[in-house]
Each structure stands twice: as structure tokens, then as C-alpha cells.
Design the sequence.
């Protein structure tokens, strides 16, 4: 097999931490360079700091390492992005343009750039949202993701850059924590439950959103990136689904494991309005048709796995 050389941006984030490890397992730790704005500490990992606005440094890293694939994860998420809209736009878009230009100019073979359910908006059908549908995002993060999808497709059509993308739902995993998103509660709630603490949900109890377990999200990413080029018929971004649940449903699922667990609901106006502008469930049949996508985890299976792993994590901490 030909040697791959992988560059990841935003590798210290919720997805990056886990994807870095998966890519190391697949391609060898020596062939993966994990970068982030801040210094990252991942065991047995080649790391470097990289501000995605610094095109010269990004170019140097790509050239020096003869990079064949870039996973461009650095971005500011939905809720956090609203604090500084123009700043968020700049990071999310200029970062992407740097990656796209470098990929074109230095013949990087494949690019992964995630999009999100945030690319949809209030005019999008909320149930079983189709692959191609009206999308009128109302957060700066969502606008940048939708614009990023169009630009990815443009670089593919115009310059032949092999860019691939998924519209991730909210991602839930036990190995890392999210930051600044609207779906973050669904990770934090498990931590509180396992620690025996009560939890206050920042959304109202019936706010259903599309979600996916981290293991499925990572597998989808690897499967998409491995798929033969001719199978990829969508170059803006593939709809991706795992499961759908409301805060009330995740609480009920946790209570089956921890009957004493107590949650209260206090909707944060910003996060609530963002959540209400997003779909509830996603039609990902195009991903299934093109490259065989199938999720493995539903809410019950995820809850069991999260609790088992977080129990280990916290009991290890206690005994350390
Ligand atoms: N999880 C992200 C957010 O809540 C959606 O892409 O912002």
C-alpha cells in the first residue's frame, strides 16, 4: 500500500482527539501529524501548533511532510460562534480557503471537511431532512458550513480537489468533551450521571435533535475517505444520521441505568432558538447508496457504552 501522510487541523477538539487515534491506527502514528491552535498532549502522537489562518505555516507543514490527506476540523461551533460573528466567519472560512488553496497548489490527494446539521435552517423540512433541500442557516457557524460546502464543491468542479464532507449531527462520545455547541448537553449529561450528580439541561425537554455516537461518526469519516472516487457523487456534503432523541428521552435512557438520576430543564434562549432552527431527523440514504453507510448505535446501545466507559474513567481517576 502506498504511504499516506495525514495532516489534521483542530486535532485537540472533540472529534480531532478521537479521529487522530483512529487515523494513527490505520496509517501508523509516524504518518499522522496532529495540529491545533493550542499545544495538544496526545500520547505517542506527532503534534504541532498551527493557526489555520497562517497559510505560510500550513504550506510548510504540507510540503515538509508530503501530506497526502488533510482532515480540516478546526472551526468555531454554533453557540460560541454567535459571541463574535465576524471573527467566527473569518476563522471558519479563511481556514477552509487556506486548506483548499494548499490542496490545489500542492496536489494534496484528499481533503475531509465536516459540515453539520447547522447548515440547515428554519425553512428546511425538519423530519427526515432530504439530501437536497432548502437550507437557510441562521447561525454564523451554519452559514459558514453551508458556504464551505459550496466552496468545497467549487474546488472539486473547477480544480479537481478531491474533497469529501459529512453533515455531522451532534456527536456524543466518552473520550473527549465538546465545546461551544448546541448539542453539547448530550455529552455532559452522561458525565454528571456517572458521577452521581444532578444535571440541568440547557434545552427544553422535547427538543429533538439528530445525534450520532462518536464510534459511528469516526467510522463514517473513514469509510467516506476510503471509498473509491467514482462512488462519491456528492461533493458539497453527505447527510449523515445516527439517531434522534430529545432531552427527555436521553434522561429516560440514563434512568434505566441510574434510577436515582435527576435532570431539570432550563432552556437557554440562544441554544434553544438554534436547536429549533435545525432538523429533528435526517435522511442519509444517499450515503448508504453511495458508500454503504449504516450506523451501529441507537440511544440504548450508546447509553450502555457511554456509562460503561465513563465508569472506568472515573473509577480510574478515583483510584489514581
Ligand atoms: N454539534 C454542533 C453544534 O452544536 C453541530 O454541528 O454546534
Sequence:
Amino acid at each position: 500500500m502506498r504511504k499516506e501522510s495525514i495532516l489534521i487541523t483542530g486535532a485537540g477538539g472533540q472529534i480531532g482527539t478521537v479521529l487522530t487515534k483512529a487515523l494513527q491506527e490505520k496509517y501508523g502514528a509516524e504518518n499522522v501529524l496532529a495540529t491545533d491552535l493550542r499545544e495538544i498532549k496526545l500520547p505517542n502522537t506527532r503534534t504541532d501548533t498551527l493557526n489555520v489562518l497562517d497559510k505560510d505555516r500550513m504550506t510548510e507543514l504540507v510540503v515538509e511532510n508530503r501530506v497526502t490527506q488533510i482532515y480540516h476540523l478546526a472551526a468555531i461551533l454554533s453557540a460560541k460562534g454567535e459571541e463574535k460573528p465576524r471573527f467566527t466567519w473569518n476563522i471558519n472560512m479563511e481556514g477552509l480557503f487556506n486548506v483548499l488553496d494548499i490542496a490545489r497548489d500542492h496536489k494534496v490527494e484528499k481533503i475531509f471537511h465536516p459540515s453539520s446539521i447547522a447548515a440547515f435552517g428554519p425553512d428546511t423540512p425538519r423530519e427526515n431532512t432530504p439530501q437536497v433541500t432548502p437550507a437557510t442557516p441562521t447561525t454564523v457557524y451554519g452559514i459558514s458550513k453551508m458556504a464551505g460546502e459550496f466552496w468545497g464543491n467549487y474546488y472539486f468542479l473547477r480544480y479537481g480537489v478531491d474533497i469529501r464532507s459529512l453533515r455531522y449531527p451532534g456527536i456524543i462520545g466518552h473520550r473527549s468533551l465538546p465545546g461551544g455547541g448546541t448539542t453539547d448537553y448530550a455529552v455532559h449529561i452522561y458525565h454528571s450521571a456517572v458521577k452521581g450528580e444532578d444535571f440541568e439541561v440547557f434545552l427544553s425537554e422535547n427538543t429533538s435533535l439528530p445525534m450520532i455516537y462518536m464510534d459511528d461518526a469516526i467510522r463514517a469519516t473513514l469509510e467516506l475517505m476510503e471509498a473509491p472516487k467514482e462512488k462519491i457523487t456528492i461533493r458539497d456534503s453527505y447527510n449523515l444520521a445516527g439517531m434522534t432523541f430529545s432531552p427527555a428521552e436521553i434522561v429516560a435512557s440514563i434512568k434505566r441505568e441510574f434510577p436515582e438520576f435527576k435532570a431539570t430543564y432550563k432552556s437557554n434562549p440562544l441554544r434553544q432558538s438554534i436547536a429549533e432552527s435545525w432538523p429533528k431527523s435526517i435522511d442519509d440514504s444517499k450515503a448508504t447508496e453511495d458508500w454503504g453507510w449504516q450506523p451501529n448505535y441507537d440511544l440504548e446501545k450508546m447509553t450502555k457504552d457511554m456509562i460503561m466507559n465513563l465508569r472506568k474513567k472515573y473509577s480510574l481517576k478515583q483510584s489514581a
